[in-house]
Every structure is written in structure tokens, then in C-alpha cells.
Amino acid sequence: MVLDRLLGAFSNDLAIDLGTANTLVYAKGRGIVSSEPSVVAVFTDARGVDRVRAVGKEAKDMLGRTPGSIRAVRPLRDGVIADFEIAEAMLRYFIQQAHNRSAFLRPRIVISVPSGITEVEKRAVRESALSASAREVYLIDEPMAAAIGAGLPITEPSGNMILDIGGGTTEVAIISLAGLVYAKSVRVGGDKLDEALLHYMKRKYNLLIGERTAELIKINIGSAYPVERPAAMIVKGRDLVAGVPKTVEITTEDVREAIAEPVNAIVEATKAALERTPPELAADISDKGIVLTGGGALLDNLDVLLREETGLPVMLSEDPFTAVVLGCGRCLDEIDLLKDVSIRA
Q: Considering 227, 252, 277, which residue would you say is the last residue of a domain?
């Protein structure tokens, strides 16, 4: 206990947005110190023992390009831990990286989790962080963290609506008085958009592409609603019929058609939240509108589509990609706020 306090006195507390696609780390007093893909490259030696070869960007660069002895693993699926040991190794790497590779510091850590996860999944996140050298672990609902990071007045008695679109999940929530009046986590996010693109390219062009290529298509020419100036992109992959490399050109309209189903699921989740909002809070939301956060919110014209479908003002937060980790970071600085919004064990 005394040792814990001594180690804690010298440690930098951390806030972590443990995402399906990316993990962001915020160090108290220093801001965001790390933003890397949630990917781990694992090497299996001759005795069948797994060893971590690379983490983050270096590991993501290996996706789809590894020999048989190395596999690139994404330890989180749909916003929750799918591979406990690999997730623990990844967390340890990010914690040590934030502390200049010191293995002795034991920080207090705030981690965001999807609002719909089970008690078992919460325990997995908590235990992974404790095993990775955390001294104390606090969990915060992702939409709550996103709302704090976006600067919404969550402690006031008025309705705030947040739509946080991550890699694995989309979180939609109505927040008032530092509590979730309504929260829904749907397992649709950036990954499902990439997956839809993979299937579309197979179906329409008989072209097999990788996850990274699908993500690049989405980022470069993806759109949720018709754009003024449609763009095109050359895509390379393998011809499923001839089995040889093949190149095709696809347009913004192609991508919009490909991702229509997952985008529609996000729209429907938003409408469902509005239908379940108490009347007084609904009046607040009709004035303030919906705030979008998360990397998926950067999809071109998604705000326009939501505005069209709901009839409400829709705004992107100042920096959608970092809103969740900044919200967790603010909780580190304001201990009373952390007590109000953290999930009870």
C-alpha cells in the first residue's frame, strides 16, 4: 500500500480512449501523447510461443503483408476486448510509451468504454489495465467522455445529444445533470463501413481488396450524402475470376452506394434516441441540435444527411477524433467530475 502511494506520487496519470480502430493516450499535464492504431503484430516462435513483435502504426503497416509466423491482431472488436492477453500487451506498451518506457510507474488510468457493454466486458477492460501496471482504473461511458471533450454543459439540467461514431461502435446518448438519460450502443462504425466496401468491390467488380485499401477509399472519396463535385479513385486488388492483379476506378457514388446500409443503421439509431427523449429534453435538443464526435463523424456529408433525416441542427465537434480522450483527460484534472461520471464497479 505504501509502495503504491510512493509509485503513484511519481507517476503521470493517464486517460485512454481504447478504441477498436485507434488508441489515444492523454497524460495529465502534457495533453495527448500517443495516437496509434489498435493493432498488435504477434510472432509465433518454433515452440509455438507468441511474442509481441510490434504495436500501433508499425503493426498496422504489417496488416495483410505478414509471413506465416507473424500475424497482425486487432485485440478489440466492436468496442470490446476480444483477445485479453494481446489487449493487455498493447495497453502495457502504450502506458510505458507515455512514461518514456519506465516499467516502475503505476498511474491512475481513466478509460472510456461503450455504453452498452456487459459487466464481464467491463471487468475485462479493468483487469487488462490493472495487469498492464495501472494503480487505479476508472471507467467512463464513451458518449459521456465525448460530450465532456466536445465542451457540452453536461452538468446542467438541460438536454445534450451526442453521437459518437468510432471504429467498432456508434454511441448515441442524451445527457443531462451528468447522467445518461438515454444511451444506445450499436455495433456499427468505421469497421462496418470498410467491410461494406470490401463486399461491394467483390460483388460489383470481382475485385478482392484488403482492409487498409477499403479504409483509404472511405477516407479519400467516401460520402454519406451526394456531393457537389464527385471524385474518383484508382483501386488495386486481385481479380477473383482470373486470379491476377487488377485495377479499377471507382467514384464517390460507388462508395455511397456501398456504405448505405451501415450509414442507415447510424441514422436509425439517432432517430430511435430522439423518439425516446423526454419532452422537456427534446425541446432543449431541438434548440441545441446534435453534436457529432469520433473518427466516423469525419465521413463527408454525414452531418448533412443527419440534418436532412432529423430536421435538427447537426454540428461536428471541434476535433471529433480526439473528443473522447480529451473528455477522459478533463476528468483526470477535475476529480469531482470524475466521481460524478465514472461507472461504479
A: 252
pLDDT 10s digits, 86-145: 999 999 899 888 887 565 578 899 999 998 888 998 999 999 999 988 889 999 999 999
Q: How confident is the model over 63-100, as pLDDT tens digits?
A: 777 777 788 889 998 888 888 889 999 998 998 888 87
Q: What is the CATH number of the domain that holds 281?
A: 3.30.420.40
Percentage of the chain surpassing pLDDT 70?
95
What HEC string does the chain produce?
CHHHHHHHHCCCCEEEEECCCEEEEEECCCEEEEEEECCEEEEECCCCCEEEEEECHHHHCCCCCCCCCEEEECCEECCEECCHHHHHHHHHHHHHHHCCCCCCCCCEEEEEECCCCCHHHHHHHHHHHHHCCCCEEEEEEHHHHHHHHCCCCCCCCCCEEEEEECCCCEEEEEEECCEEEEEEEECCCHHHHHHHHHHHHHHHHCEECCHHHHHHHHHHHCECCCCCCCCEEEEEEEECCCCCEEEEEEEHHHHHHHCHHHHHHHHHHHHHHHHCCCHHHHHHHHHHCEEEECHHHHCECHHHHHHHHHCCCEEECCCHHHHHHHHHHHHHHCHHHHHHHECCC
User: Would residue 68 count as lying in a domain?
Assistant: no
Range of the domain at 236: 190-252
Residue 59 lies in a domain: no
Residues 226 and 268 in one domain: no
